[in-house]
Specification:
Shape: globular
Order of helices and strands: HEHEEEEHEHEH
Strand content: 15-25%
Helix content: 25-40%
Strand order of the largest sheet: 2-1-5-6-7
InterPro entries: CoA-bd, NAD(P)-bd_dom_sf
Number of strands: 7
Largest sheet: 5 strands, parallel
Protein name: CoA binding domain protein
Organism: Rubripirellula amarantea
Radius of gyration: 13 Å
Number of domains: 1
CATH class: Alpha Beta
Domain CoA-binding: 7-99
Number of helices: 5
Distance between the termini: 16 Å
CATH architecture: 3-Layer(aba) Sandwich
Length: 129
């Protein structure tokens, strides 16, 4: 399996940067994962609920450790989210276009995490499946 297949084979997901605003990519990615039948948790430090799902400020606040994490945040926020993901034991990280942070990617890879940071968009892949 390649990196993307590994990511999509996970059982549980979190979306860092999930948004209640329907025009935002964080909303679209969260909805796409839910629509694909994936158990998905929204991560957003300022929003309490997204589409009827409780939003959590950070990974440590989730009721489970997600296997996979999609990140739609500015690069400096991405750096912090990845540090939390490494600490929590997340196995797969997909930085959506514009969220990439080179040092954080390197740290995640060194921690043995499957990292996708090549500009691929999860929305494109989920639309194909």
């Amino acid at each position: 399996m390649n990196s993307i297949e590994n990511f999509l084979s996970a059982q549980t997901y979190a979306v860092a940067g999930a948004s209640a605003r329907t025009h935002k990519y964080g909303y679209k990615v969260f909805k796409a994962l839910l629509g694909a039948g994936r158990e998905t948790y929204p991560l957003n430090p300022v929003t309490e609920e997204i589409e009827g799902h409780k939003a959590y400020p950070k990974i440590a606040d989730l009721p489970i450790i997600p296997e996979a994490l999609s990140i739609i945040t500015p690069p400096e926020v991405t750096r912090q989210v990845i540090a939390e993901a490494i600490e929590a034991g997340v196995k797969h990280i997909w930085m959506q276009p514009g969220a990439e942070h080179e040092q954080a990617s390197q740290s995640a890879r060194e921690a043995g995490i499957n990292v996708i940071d090549d500009g691929s968009c999860i929305l494109v892949l989920l639309a194909r499946s």
